[in-house]
Every structure is written in C-alpha cells, then in structure tokens.
C-alpha cells in the first residue's frame, strides 16, 4: 500500500460553532448513523472518522489487516513493533487511525489468560471520511473528489439540523432519564467485593486494586443527544462518541493513558484521589478540596500511582528525561474533583508510541499496584468482563503521534443492552461505604444527562 496523501479537502467556517463545537460534531455523527464512526475530542479540536477505508484487528496471536488489497495476517510477535509496521504499511500521510483498546490487552501484556474478556485486544480503522472541527473552522477530508462533493451536499443539511438542535437545547425539549434508582444497583455486591479486596491487601497480595460495578439501564438511549447534554455539563480531559459494529459508546474521560507527539515526547496524566464536586456550592467544594488534600488514604493512593507511572515511563524513555511536571493538583471533572499529576519523558531509540502505550496499559488508576496481581484480582472478584471499560479510545498517525483516553465515565449500548460502569481505588485504609459513594459521585457526571430514545436529534 502507498503512504502517499491522496486526500481531497474542503474547509469552511460555521456560524456559532466555536461556543459548542461538540453539538455540531454530534449532528455530523447522527447524519452518518448508517456508518461506523468515532468522534474524538482533544482540547480545542474534534476529529471524526467515518467509514472504514482499512481496518486493523489485534488478538493474542495475530495482527490482521483488512484493506482494498485483501486480508493480511501477521503474527503478533512483539506487539508494539508489529503494530507500528502494519500501521505504516496501511497508513497514509495526513490521515489518522481511530480505535479502541479493550481491557483484555492488560491481560495479554501481563501474560494472564483472557478469561471472559473480548478476544479483540485492539481495533483500529483508517476512515473513508474525516471531519475536523477547530474553534470556528470545519474541514472535510475524503479519498476521492466524488466523495467530497457528496459530503459537501450533506453538510448543508447537517448545518440546518445543527441550528435546529441549538434551539431545542435552549428550550430543554428532551426526555432525560430518571436516575434516582439507578445508582443503588449492585450496591451490596460492590461493597462485598471491596471487603474481599481489602482482605487480600491486608494479606499482602497487592497494594491497590480498582474494583468496579456494572449498572444496567432499562431504557434505550439516544446516544448522540446524550453525548451533547453530557458534554455541556462536563469538562473532561477527552470525550468520545462511537458507533462501530452494533456497539455505541459515549464518554467523558477524566484522564489520558498516554500522549505522544511527533518528536517522541511522551506524557501520562494519572488521577487518583476523589471527592465530590457540588454544583453551585463554592464553600462546600472548598471544604471538600481541603479534605482531599489532607486525607492520608487519598494522598497515599495518588502517590503510589504516580510512582509506578514514573517507573514505567523510565523503561521506555531516555535515562534522566522523565519528570513530574505537575504534582497532586486538584482537577475538577464534572461531579467530582481528583488529585492529578502529569509525567513527561522522551522516548528512547527503538521505542515508539505503541511501546509507550503497552508499557502504561492498563492505566494504573484503572487497574492497581502491582499491576499483575491487581489484574488477577479484578478477574477473580468482579462478575462481568470489562471489555472496553478501563481500556482506551485513541487516535494515531504514521508520524508517531498518539493520544489515548482512559475509558471511564462512559455509557455502552448494544442492540440488546445499555449499561455503564464505575469503580474506585481500593487500598488498605479503604471503607466499603465510602468507596460505594465514590462510584456514585463519578456516575452522576453521566447519569444526570442521559436522553432516552424519545429524544430527537
């Protein structure tokens, strides 16, 4: 395959887009609801990959490439090197891959049998069409002039729907899910697995593990509209909206697993330590922030997470290049506030973005310490496979640039089921009631903004 850039581009400005670009982005997704797509928000930029031009699938044994040239099978081998080579072969200049890593990749990386986790460890696709929204500018990219002309015609209808949605949002004319009983689901089960986890920590099996609970939602959701309302209410580090092979996903990620730029600068942004964030109550939030900064359990949980992230980065970076650029800052995310630290390093020769991702995956804040023992505990104590939960959604291009968001504060929907999930970091000083409440605090950043399928976009 050729890496030559054969793209056709169209750029324009869209009135009122700069204030809430994710509203227009959701309408673009809805207008392509018969196609696979991933919307990914990174800072001021929203990228949307639509349709599949080429696809890469990773299992324990093989990396498989599907493209116009047919199907090619590669032995997984050293996964980071194999993925890099396949992406370079299949990629094109100026285009990015969109994809997901499931939690099964954690079990693969630590040589633990997959159990009931998905056999698909990583899935990536190079899109047929790409939209990029940046402040008030919109760009469309396609592989042919014919596709571009068709997409420009579609854009006129998209902008009209966008303007109508702005009016509907101001009038709050939607049906929101009643979440009053939702957060109590599986509460006793969750407290029981937290108690078991604490016992195992006291018996020196591991220092920390993240225990989570799955919560089924009885109503079917309008996912694009739920994304819009949830994004208006939240200030995530990254956000995403996905429709891919009968699975729909929306999420407001509080942190990144890994960020790598084209100069091989790598960073990670672990959050650990949590308190509630109460709407319109400044004094209470200040009190909770002081409590967070002084709580020995929260500080210890955060410190050991940063220490492990530092050690992991050191293994793939030039000696002496890893530094903590921000330590134990209070980061506000929707209905919660966290302790957050950023670590930065420079990848050493022979290491690429996939080495960095695989070294840091699973995120310490979604697995535990040591990771091997925590991954085994998760498989032993939790009832349901995690699959994409606590995995990542990512973008990657052949310059080596990668951005991977941790999948938390996320809703999942298939043809048969709708659910979300939340967890908390368990250490020896944990209290089951408090850990349960922490999962509720996190869930409220999502559950209050879910729009039932009677809503219209």
UniProtKB/TrEMBL annotation:
Q: Which GO terms describe its biological process?
A: L-tryptophan biosynthetic process
> Can you tell me where the transmembrane regions are?
none
Chorismate-utilising enzyme C-terminal domain residues: 188-442
Its keywords, alphabetically, are: Lyase, Magnesium, Metal-binding
The record's section on InterPro entries has:
ADC_synthase (IPR005801), Anth_synth_I-like (IPR019999), Chorismate_C (IPR015890), Salicylate_synthase (IPR019996)
Per its record, how is this protein called by name? Salicylate synthase
Q: Which SUPFAM superfamilies match?
A: ADC synthase
NCBIfam families, sorted = salicyl_syn (TIGR03494)
Taxonomic superkingdom: Bacteria
Q: Name one GO molecular function term.
A: isochorismate synthase activity
- Kindly list the cofactors needed: Mg(2+)
């Amino acid at each position: 395959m050729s890496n030559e850039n054969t793209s056709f581009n169209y750029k324009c400005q869209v009135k009122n887009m700069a204030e809430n670009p994710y509203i227009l982005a959701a309408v673009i997704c809805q207008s392509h609801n018969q196609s696979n797509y991933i919307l990914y928000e990174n800072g001021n930029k929203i990228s949307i990959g639509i349709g599949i031009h080429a696809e890469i699938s990773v299992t324990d044994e093989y990396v498989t490439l599907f493209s116009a040239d047919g199907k090619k099978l590669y032995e997984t081998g050293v996964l980071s090197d194999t993925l890099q080579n396949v992406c370079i072969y299949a990629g094109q200049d100026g285009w990015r891959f969109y994809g997901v890593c499931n939690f099964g990749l954690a079990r693969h990386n630590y040589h633990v049998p997959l159990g009931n986790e998905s056999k698909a460890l990583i899935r990536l696709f190079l899109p047929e069409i790409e939209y990029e929204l940046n402040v008030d500018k919109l760009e469309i990219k396609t592989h042919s002039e014919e596709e571009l002309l068709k997409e420009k015609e579609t854009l006129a209808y998209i902008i009209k729907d966008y303007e109508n949605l702005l009016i509907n949002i101001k009038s709050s004319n939607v049906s929101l899910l009643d979440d009053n009983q939702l957060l109590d689901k599986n509460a006793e089960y969750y407290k029981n697995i937290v108690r078991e986890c604490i016992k195992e920590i006291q018996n020196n099996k591991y220092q920390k593990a993240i225990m989570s609970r799955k919560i089924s939602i009885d109503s079917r959701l309008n996912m694009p509209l739920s994304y819009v309302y949830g994004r208006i209410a939240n200030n995530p580090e990254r956000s995403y909206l996905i429709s891919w092979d009968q699975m729909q996903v929306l999420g407001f990620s509080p942190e990144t697993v890994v960020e790598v730029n084209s100069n091989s600068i790598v960073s990670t942004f672990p959050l650990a330590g949590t308190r509630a964030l109460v709407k319109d109550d400044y004094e209470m939030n200040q009190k909770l922030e002081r409590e967070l900064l002084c709580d020995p359990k929260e500080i210890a949980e955060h410190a050991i997470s940063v220490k492990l992230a530092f050690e992991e980065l050191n293994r793939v970076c030039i000696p002496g290049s890893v530094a903590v650029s921000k330590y134990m800052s209070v980061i506000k995310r929707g209905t919660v506030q966290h302790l957050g630290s950023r670590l930065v390093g420079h990848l050493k020769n022979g290491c690429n973005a996939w080495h960095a991702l695989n070294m840091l995956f699973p995120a310490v804040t979604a697995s535990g310490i040591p990771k091997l023992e925590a991954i085994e505990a998760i498989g032993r104590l939790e009832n349901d496979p995690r699959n994409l939960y606590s995995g990542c959604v990512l973008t990657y291009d052949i310059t080596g640039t990668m951005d991977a968001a941790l999948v938390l504060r996320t809703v999942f929907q298939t043809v048969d089921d709708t659910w979300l999930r939340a967890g908390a970091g368990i250490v020896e000083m944990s209290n089951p009631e408090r850990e349960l409440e922490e999962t509720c605090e996190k869930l409220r950043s999502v559950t209050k903004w879910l729009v039932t399928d009677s809503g219209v976009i």
